[in-house]
């Protein structure tokens, strides 16, 4: 098992092409960390965040006294994370389909990225996340919604810093498609493809992994006509929702 070959170049170039705005996001990250604690709903001491990028949310949670461990596949993002993070955060480079940890965690999270591979890949990942959770621990995972990407986002094009992007939807495989290119090299396109799941679909998959959804939290939505982002939309209109999982 290896992660899809598009993953490393997509996230590498996305990081290179975007302006570094983390310093401008302090308030947002603090609110997000607070929201995560509310969604977990009980005191916890340790957390593993996979697909952690440059570790922004890990640093926000570390500042709240949580013992953070991160796992990220893209070497450039891990370098950036280590440069920015305090020594209290345990930063790892590796593939979450194969990487192992010697300990378990109160919380395992995967924000903004679930759905990279096939359904079998996702099921394998859920089983691995279960092994990383303590028996009384939980997981938090962001799930992309089919209807938003099918009916609202598909066809939308936008400029972001030195890059442009366009959304589309793969109906046959129920996947959101997000293609990026640099303004100076529009012929060199990198694309991410993430499987979208309705609640009943992801619930059935979690059951196969011995996990039960114990919380559902709608995310935000973009109104492309008004160019306004709503941080919390209805479950029927959000671009993604977050699920909390506990072991059966």
List the helices and strands and how they pair.
Layout: H1 7-17, H2 26-40, E1 46-50, H3 56-62, E2 67-72, H4 75-84, E3 90-93, E4 105-110, H5 119-132, E5 133-144, H6 146-153, E6 157-160, E7 163-170, E8 175-182, E9 185-195, H7 199-208, E10 211-218, E11 221-223, E12 228-230, E13 240-247
Parallel strand pairs: 1-2, 1-4, 2-3, 4-5
Antiparallel strand pairs: 5-13, 6-7, 7-8, 8-9, 10-13, 11-12
Describe this structure in words.
The chain has 248 residues and is of the alpha/beta class. A 7-stranded mixed beta sheet has the order 3-2-1-4-5-13-10, with helices on both faces. Strands 6-7-8-9 form a 4-stranded antiparallel beta sheet. It has 7 helices and 13 strands. The chain has a domain at 7-144 and 195-218 and 241-247: Rossmann fold, CATH 3.40.50. α5 links the parallel β4 (105-110) and β5 (133-144). Its EC number is 2.1.-.-. Pfam families: Methyltransf_23. It is an enzyme of class 2 (transferase).
